[in-house]
Design brief:
The protein is an alpha/beta fold and 305 residues long. It has helices at residues 28-40, 56-66, 92-106, 125-137, 151-158, 178-184, 200-206, 233-246, 250-259, 274-280, 290-299; strands spanning 3-5, 12-14, 17-19, 45-47, 76-81, 83-84, 87-88, 111-117, 141-147, 165-171, 210-214, 268-269. Helix 5 links the parallel strand 9 (141-147) and strand 10. It is globular and about 50 Å long. The relative contact order is 0.14.
Length: 305
Amino acid sequence: MKTIKIGKTPIEASQLAHGCMRMAGLTSQEASKVIATAYDAGINFFDHADIYGGGQSETIFAQGLNQTNIQRSDIFLQSKVGIRKGFFDFSKEHIVHSVEQILSRLQTDYLDFLLLHRPDTLMEPEEVAAAFDTLFDSGKVRYFGVSNQNRAQIELLQHVVRQPLAVNQLQFGPAHTPLIDEGLNVNMLNAASVNHNGGLLEFSRLHEMTIQPWSPFQVDLGKGLFMEHPDYKKLTTTLHLYAKDKGVSFEAMVMAWIMRHPAKMQPIVGSMNPERIASMAQASEVHLSREEWYDIYCSAGNVLP
């Protein structure tokens, strides 16, 4: 598994991260196998959130990790806070309290990364900064980032927060490409030219923020998996053909397409199936030419200007 540098930190981690959202549905023995399979495949970065399974995903992860020979120092743990039932909360009190609960569930003294989960329009940057300082100075969190935030929200936060924001989690995949569409259709009047993200891809590269694509197999949260959607039959067929040609799984080809982009993204693998996890790890060794990458992009129905 190849590694990438995470943001402006000294951390070199696996190019793929494993997302633990669905781990609450596993036994500790099943979780142990998932964790060990991911680690053996070279994945040493694990993503959590305090709302995943109501916190149960973190609890099961810790129990599963304890049944492996993997040491805490061998892996990177990331979690997210800020979503509450019916509202968002970036208050200092909530952030600090949430992290303390996360650490207890994960049975660890520190998080490598803490992200703010979805934007809170009532955010007071000074409160976030105070929370981050408290967590950083106490050694409970090493590095910080955000999730699903645009460039203005990041700039507002970074204006006050003294720690560099290292990560932004965003949905991205071959059937969900607004990050790329707007940049390819500059000065056009077509639908793809609509600037949904304000140049967030280029902003992230300029400021050395690592993009962590989530749900890379989905069209969006409402339309489900692109492999099951009638509008993406050509994309699915094209990816299958390239997967066969490269000798890897379909899932690995999706990951390879994402990782081919020079932004050096770190896709999140959310599977709880050990075989699928191992097969997706093969993506790190796949090379796609420019022609092949654009062929896949266009097969999703995108038209180059």
